[in-house]
Amino acid sequence: MSQQQEISALKKLVRATNFLATSQIYLKKNVLHKRALAHTDIKPRLLGHWGTCPGINFVYANINRLIVKNSRSFVYLVGPGHGFPAVQANLFMEGSLSHYYPEIIPYNEEGITDICQKFSAAYGYPSHANPEAPGQILEGGELGYSLSVAWGAVLDNPDLIAACLIGDGESETGPLAASWYANRLVDPATNGAVLPIVHINGYKISGPTRMGRMSHEELDLEFRGLGYHPIIVDDELEEDVYVQMANAMDTSYEMINDIQKRARSGEDVVKPRWPVILMRTAKGWTGTAEYNGKKLEGNCESHQVIVNKCATDKGHLEALNTWLSSYKFDELYTINDKGELIFDKEIQSLLPPKQLTCGQQHLSYGGEVVRALANPDLSKLAYGAETPRGTRGLSMYKMGEWMRDAMKLNRDQRNLRIFSPDETYSNQLQAVFEETDRAWMWPIEEWDDDMARDGRVIELLSENLLFGMMHGYTVTGRHAMFPTYESFSQVVSSMADQYCKYVYASQGVHFRKPVPACNVVLSSLLERQDHNGYSHQNPSFLGAMLEKHPKIISAYLPADGNSTLVYTERAYADRDKLNIIVAGKKDLPQWLSLDEARQQAKDGVMVWDFASDENPDVVLVGCGDYVTQEAMAALVLIRELLPRVRIRFVSVSELTSSGLGSLDFQSKPWLMDEVFTADKGVVFNYHGYPNTIKKLVFDYKGSERFRIKGYEEEGSTTTPFDMGVRNGTSRYHLVIDMAYKLFQQGVIDETQHVAITTDMLQRLVDHRNYIKANGVDPISLDNWVWTR
């Protein structure tokens, strides 16, 4: 096919999809525009964003051209938020909607009527990309996540190209701005490629964009500085913009092939300059240019629904009628004797084979391609039976050993990565470097440690970039971990929320199967952020995520290394989940054997018999590793002071939005009674904000017996033990609270209560004086040893 024929076909395809996008926004009847529009053809409520649709259609058509020409796998990620009418128009044209929804959206007028009537309607189709739509791997309009997700999707998919359309408004967001740096991390020898296309239509919802007011020279300098090869396409240049774009796509494809070919032949490709297309077309291109003297096309006024009173205003209706007529849609199709639409042969020449269409790209459906991990043998990694209970050890280091062995076992599958926005060493995961390295495509100096082109640890100081990459990696069927400092995890709270929405919505879609869990590891916990101070003390990500659906979110708070291993193994076996594992990186007592840890993980809650008495007078609970150490120390203290008092120790290691582990206190309240007794006082020491636990037990009839301790937003640069003191989670505070519960229940008298409280308060004063004088905690506290 000559270029002239290709350009003719492109123009027809874009005409068709622009027509269908417009029809979805406006029409409920007469969707093929067989007659002049009437007010009764118009929807009663007009929703959608027209301004970005023509650009989406233009790029989609050009991607199809490359697919047909080269038989190469592409996914198409659309960053501009509410341009779904354009996406859906193309999914209809290529046959993907009819493939997945043959009864609902047949390839005929009835199918077009369906997508028009249901677009942005109650119980219909959303105004943005969504999991219900074929081929989509992220929700649209996610505040700049598109490019990072694209980079994640191509990792370990060497034949895949992710074409990512980025709005110039979207490009102003922090997540998108950081995503350009992924070119430093992706090895062309073993991974696919991302083709970013920045759509510079000049305007956001009510004003200009930064890039829209930049010159070609300024754009060129910016992207060259970021390490890319910019290619500018501009509809105001003399050359036909369709010819410009076709040439730009061909050049980009050749550059991608050249980079990959050189890298795969053994050349060390340093700083590969991936292409980026900077595409200037008018916002609302091909729509109503102006109305009543107001400029619409090429202005922010075209951002959403223009001429939006078509159901009642004659002038608006005439403008829409002229607009739809300009596409001459009736010239682009015929209808066969079965009522099916048969599109123009030139259009058909740009529609890829079904298996190569963007909507049916199999890598978009991670549940179809996922392979379960080969798991390490926990018995070889765990603290064994020869390890005395209470021996100090490192939970995060054990997790690192698990990851090392898992990467070795799954080396040939290439389906496991770490996305680490903070230092992998700092989080005590360095054992992985015995098996792999950190990926780095820029110069590597001889003194750099653990860096290589094909490393499986992706490390860069941007939580947004790396969480987005993990999103792209997991929804395309691979396994990943995102370890980060607990205090910085809030940076990606919105991204995590969108990931959960994507997964939850996917569960109701018949052509999507469960995908591997997204595993967030929170380390550098607030209790030990003593040197960084108040700014690094923030457990709020936990509380935010525990507002979400219990089938999607699980928070695992293992008390020791063996429990951490068990929950790490579980997290990677999970599907359609976002798991949070909270584990400290400093040495702490090891409480459970591997079998005991496995037993506790079944329910997420367990009475520790080795630390408990029968028929208890009070219940002490630990949820989190540092706070469990303090709770166990409090247990030892109160037994020394009140040897006749009987205590039950309960460890809680899993939280969901519906409760503590598997304790369903709403339908089976006796389960809570069995664990926490029916009438005894409960002192609950929690790692995060107390309100999180208060909300979880609010509906339990015995909740008034609970005294919940946790982070009270008190902190500073101080000692580790003093962090617990400042927030009331120290062993001394727990003893005070247990003594009060015992006094309330009549187990001890007032004299005993006052004496114990006075003793603990004096110990707190003594501790403060000690750290002021010495700058560190006493050895007896810092290296506390469990005794029973």
UniProtKB/TrEMBL annotation:
Family the UniProt entry places it in: Belongs to the XFP family.
Xylulose 5-phosphate/Fructose 6-phosphate phosphoketolase N-terminal domain segment(s): 4-368
UniProt xrefs under Pfam families: XFP (PF03894), XFP_C (PF09363), XFP_N (PF09364)
Biological process annotations from GO: carbohydrate metabolic process
Protein name: Phosphoketolase
Domain Xylulose 5-phosphate/Fructose 6-phosphate phosphoketolase C-terminal: 585-786
Upper taxonomic lineage: Bacteria, Pseudomonadati, Pseudomonadota, Gammaproteobacteria, Alteromonadales
Entry keyword annotation includes Lyase: yes
Organism name: Shewanella sediminis (strain HAW-EB3)
